[in-house]
Specification:
By secondary structure, this protein is an alpha+beta fold. About 25% of the residues lie in helices and about 25% in strands. It has a six-stranded mixed β-sheet with strand order 6-7-8-9-12-13. It has a five-stranded mixed β-sheet with strand order 1-2-3-4-5, covered by helices on one side. The longest helix is centred in the N-terminal third of the chain and has 13 residues.
């Protein structure tokens, strides 16, 4: 899926969604009007998926500058080593995800998946940091509960948030994995996400796009 956001008053954001790996994880590619781009949660897990990504980036002439993770569960980090090797970009995430990130290869083996190699992490994202993807600015929201260091990337100008596995269409992230906490996740959603404008479009780690206002009214967990 490819989506274009922006109007003459705001900076343009282009979004391409890839659904990768056995977990049907949403990998997001975003870029501005000058083709400066970022990849969020690269889940590409085989040659065909890697090739899809490379061909699209090449076709659109995207200058990939950022490699960002909302969290470090294996379905969101399968492609980290590929992005590092192919584009020279180390993944950036919040420091509380470092243990999960380091454990990803062992978790993959436990699930019976091919061996994984993880590149050295880049500079940790800080909660007061403004992430600049070309002309597009993202605020970092700390949303633990699904994992200890889950973060979301919010762009107010285009009313978009990349929520990782915190909030889904009609559901929320699971909390039965190591480091998960159900009440903490509910608090994160209510205090960080449900305080955003109702028209904010939510791009989740799995499933379809939804909106904050719709989830406040219909999500069965609230």
């Amino acid at each position: 899926m490819r989506t274009y956001f922006g109007n003459p008053c705001f900076f343009v954001m282009n979004i391409k969604t890839f659904r990768f790996n056995a977990f049907s994880e949403n990998t997001y590619l975003i870029w501005d009007e000058a083709n400066i781009g970022a990849i969020i949660d690269p889940g590409c897990s085989n040659f065909d998926e890697e090739n899809q990504l490379v061909e699209f980036i090449s076709k659109e002439n995207i200058d990939l500058k950022h490699h960002l993770l909302t969290h470090a569960h294996i379905d969101h980090v399968f492609g980290c080593n590929f992005i590092f090797n192919h584009y020279g970009l180390a993944p950036r995430f919040y420091h509380l995800e470092k243990t999960l990130y380091d454990f990803a290869p062992g978790i993959a083996i436990k699930y019976g998946m091919p061996p994984m190699t993880m590149p050295e992490a880049g500079e940790f994202i800080t909660l007061d940091e403004v992430l600049n993807v070309g002309s597009i600015q993202f605020k970092v929201l700390f949303t633990p509960g699904h994992s200890p260091g889950s973060i979301c990337f919010y762009n107010a100008e285009n009313s978009i948030i990349f929520s990782g596995d915190v909030l889904f269409e009609g559901s929320i992230g699971r909390t039965d994995l190591p480091g998960g906490n159900h009440q903490q996740l509910l608090n994160s959603i209510q205090q960080q996400l449900f305080t955003l404008p109702a028209a904010t479009n939510v791009y989740s780690g799995h499933g379809n796009i939804t909106q904050i206002g719709l989830e406040k009214m219909t999500n069965p967990f609230f």
